[in-house]
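Researcher: Can you fold this with S-adenosylmethionine in place?
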Amino acid sequence: MDCEAEGRHLRNRSKPAPGLYLVATPIGNMGDITFRAVETLRAADWVACEDTRVTGKLMTRLGLDRPLIPYHEHNAEKARPELIAKLKQGAVIALVSDAGTPLVSDPGYRLVRACVAENVAVTALPGASAALTALQLSALPNDRFLFAGFLPNKAAARRTALRELAAIPATLVFYESPNRLGESLADMVAVLGDRDAVVARELTKLHEEVARGDLFALAGRYADNPPKGEVVVVVSPPGAAAAPSEADLETRLRQVVDQGARIKDAAALVAAETGFPRRDVYALALKLFRMGDNG
Ligand code: SAM
């Protein structure tokens, strides 16, 4: 069946059975919406969404006009019983997030739990998700992976979270904000060691980019240079990568000193990033910059 015929076929189908439909939407490229997603959004009595402006635009681009109900972390406690009541009366409700797959670092989990508890039918319409797209493009082992979502904002909590993941024998997938990327990569080097990794940016969009390297090199690249757009970080399992070489340490020390840091501070930072003893990195820095102990 060609695409047009498939579209006609779906348009002719009767209204879906009552229940909650978890509908994935594109993560950038509008071509990634599925036929089934469009037909379900067309047939829904209500579309529950994170941000009515974002989903309103999507609906307009799809030529659809269905009532939108906001469902996000700030109104979920109030909105959830209202949605469940509608569902129990036989409504078809589509749940979407701003982009990608609902419930994947997006609202919906408690709503699905409530549906299960109340014997309301739930089904999922798979589609785009940044985590799986980044994993595919990473070229890192994908037989076993752990989706770690967003790391905490604060450095201490972030390092604790990373320590919990350090020994897991699986590829790790993180969502990250571009502004925090440099700090997070530095913490990953310090806690996970210098593993192979990928920063996947603007997936499915015009400026899609996959930056490959080891965590140490990527931390240097993004240290003071936050990328534009959205990013996913994929990190290889433990044991697959070597510790940074002396040349790596020198490169990073030069970078930090060129940015104006004192020798001692640069050594402290690079020691923290790499897990190397501070005294050793400081000795290397002194040798590198050929100076006495006055940094
Ligand atoms: N539910 C979405 C999914 O299935 O991918 C994820 C929503 S989460 C709130 C948003 C994060 O996903 C972004 O901060 C970024 O880490 C990642 N992301 C979403 N779209 C992306 C894209 N096109 N390229 C790279 N990362 C993306």
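Model: Folded with S-adenosylmethionine in place. The chain has twelve helices and ten strands.
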